[in-house]
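SAMPLE LOG
Freezer: B-3
Tube label: C17
Construct: single chain, 213 aa
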Amino acid sequence: MSRLTLLALRDRLREEGSEVIAVDPSGVIPDPAEGTDEASPRFTDLPSAIEWCEQMLIRTYCGPREEPDPVEDHPLMRDLDETGRAALDAAMTRQAVPAGEVVLAEGTDFAGIHVIVRGQAVAQDRGPDGEVTTLVQLGPGTSFGELALGTRDRQETTIRAETELELLVLSAADLERITAEDPAAALQIWRAIARDGYRVADRALRRSAVRVG
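STRUCTURE (predicted):
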């Protein structure tokens, strides 16, 4: 389908009160309205596009509602008591990453848990043919780095800043220190890490099901 055909389809759908969104992992569909309010929403993966659609349906048919802070709703923040949260807050540091920079490289050692406060990142993998594939887009309230704990402390994907990022980082050294010095707080943190691991695994399974379907 040509670009002009897609643009004509978008105009026709908008006249009927609908919207077109694009799932374009490789950025091959140019939008002449890029950077303006007339541009179509664009996503690098299907689950992010589906989530956007779900949020639009909720806003349209359920009315406005108070949205939880995505960072505070992360299991690592939400599931700790005051003592555990105090230990976590004391250990976490803020980090700014420019757009386009690699945050974690595939094959490197476990470097801690990174929670996105602001901005967008992508998880990428290099296939057998050497081509880089974007696996998923990550936004505020999501984390990365912890899955290396289940793969012999080795990072399996490359995480790249798609836009400028603001991160909260619990380093590998600080996680090890809390485990040694404050076992009670460490137990809470490790449980939260496990819960988030299950959440990430469930998201990956749903993504696979969507692709197969």
